[in-house]
Structure formats: structure tokens, C-alpha cells
Amino acid sequence: MLHTIPAHVMVGVVMTLFSFSTALVGLRLTIRIFIFHSAGLDDWTCFAAWMLNLAETVLLFQELSAGSGQHVALLSPEQVQQALLMEYISILPYIWCIGFVKASIVIQLQRTLPTHNNMRKLCIFMSITIGIVTAAFTVVFLLMCMPPNGYWDLSKRAECHAIWTTNFAFLAVNVATEVALILMPIVIFGKLQLRKADKLGLIAIFTLFGLVPITNLLRIPAIIYMEQDPDMTYSHQTVVGYSRIELNVCIICACLPTLRVPLARAWSIIRRQSQNNTTLHQVPREGVMVLNRVGPSSNMASLED
């Protein structure tokens, strides 16, 4: 079931994606800094997003060690409080990681696609929108309860606004901005002076970013179940896992356009070297065949002379 996935399964998926996103970010920075010497703001915002994702991954294990993913009846009040505290601390890195990834993609669009007036205005509008959304939801989530420490300290009897509504509002805005980022480059690809294969490659890469809103939509059953289930520490872990998956998928998709050209060049070099090696291995056999054909006739000719 999508709303309840065992913690060990979710951790395995998250760590696999985290390893992959880490490798791609490292490869991206290596290529941009040491090979092309052209590292830009889009690379550094992507690296900042990865750092926040690293913090989220560490907090995931902190939450698990505190009791998240276990049934609340099996936990002491102190463990429940610690698990909720770790959950609260993870809110800020999560929201800002998403913001930095989206900012990296917008900056990358400005850097790689034609900067005519409409595209420039659209990128500026998206940058402002992402900044406002990130700041607004940071405040909303951090002040979800009054006093704020009532979020994890249940003895405070804090007044908390509807968490269900806040989660769905953030999810809706998140999906809307992600769909906009997918459509932005695809709309103007027809105007680019590129080969058809290159255009199709870029479209395929940006279309892969569609995995991000899909991940968000998969989280809906888990959010609904979490709001209805009194076993909060057990049901909430699935939502947390989907959030970590979303961050890693975002970072992976943000790195793919940057790595398209270097990886294509590397692949062409490997293919060329492979073809050259095949040709070199074939030459001696052809030479032997030629000698076998020419050798006897030339010997006979010399004997006849």
C-alpha cells in the first residue's frame, strides 16, 4: 500500500537515490569547475540543495533512532517528543532544498536557452515566485503551532492550525511550479537552432523532471492516511520517506541537462576508440589473407622467370 511502506524499504530507496544524486552533483561540479572552468550560480545553488538534502538524510536517521516508523504505543513519551522534534527540525531544510533546486533549474534555463525578452521575463517571474513560496511556507510551517515548541512538546497544549490543509496547500503549489518548470523549456524548443536529435534529447531530459510531481502525487494517500491515523509516529514515516525521495529526484533531474553534452561527448569518444580498436585487430588478419593470396603466385612467377 502507498500509504504505509515499511521504514527499512523506504530507507533503502532513499539511500539508493541519495547515492545517485551525490554522484551526479559531484560529476557536475567536476566537469564545470575542472574541465570547462565555467561553474555558475546554477551549479552552486544545486550544490546548496545537495547540502540541505544531506542534512535531511542525517535527520531521517535521527528520526528513526528516536522512534519514527514505530507504533506510538511502543514508545515512551520522551521518544515521541524526540521524534516530533526531529520532524520539526527537518521542515526548514526540506522546504529550502526544494527552493534551491528550482532556483538552479531556472538559472540554468537562463544560461542555456535563448534569453529573449519573453524567456527572460518568465525566468524572473518564476524566480520571484519560487522565492515567495519558499519564504511563505517556511513561516507557515515553523509557526504551525503557537507556541512553536508545542509541535513536539504535547504538554504545552498548543493551538495548531490544520496541518492537513497546510500540507495539501504546499503540495499543490509545489506541483504547480514543477509543472511550470517542465513546460518552460519545452515551449521554446521549437525556436532553438539545434539538430533534431539534440532537441529530442533535451525534451526527454526535461520531461524526466515530470517524475518529481508524480512523486508528490504519490504522497497524497500517505498524507490522508496520516491525518486519519492516531498512530502518528508509524504513519508519518511514509510521508517523510516520500519527501526524501522527492528531494533526490529533484537534484538528479536538475543535474541531467548539465551532463547531457559531456556525457554525449564521452560516449562518442568511447565508441570511436572502440571502432579504432576493432579496425586495428582486423588489419593483421586482412594482411595475412592478402599475403596468402599474393605470396604463392609471386613465388610461381619468380620460378617461371
Automatic annotation (TrEMBL):
The answer to keyword Transmembrane applying to this record is yes
The cross-references to Pfam families, in alphabetical order and at most eight, read:
Fung_rhodopsin
Q: What domain of life is recorded for the organism?
A: Eukaryota
Q: Which GO terms describe its cellular component?
A: membrane
Q: Which UniProt keywords apply?
A: Membrane, Transmembrane, Transmembrane helix
Limits of the Rhodopsin domain? 27-265
Q: Which compartments is it annotated to reside in?
A: Membrane
KW Membrane (keyword) present:
yes
Q: What membrane topology is given?
A: Multi-pass membrane protein
Task: List residues traversing the bilayer.
Answer: 6-29, 122-144, 164-188, 200-225, 245-263
- State the similarity comment: Belongs to the SAT4 family.
Under what name is this protein listed? Rhodopsin domain-containing protein
Question: What is the species of this protein?
Answer: Glonium stellatum
The major lineage groups are:
Eukaryota, Fungi, Dikarya, Ascomycota, Pezizomycotina
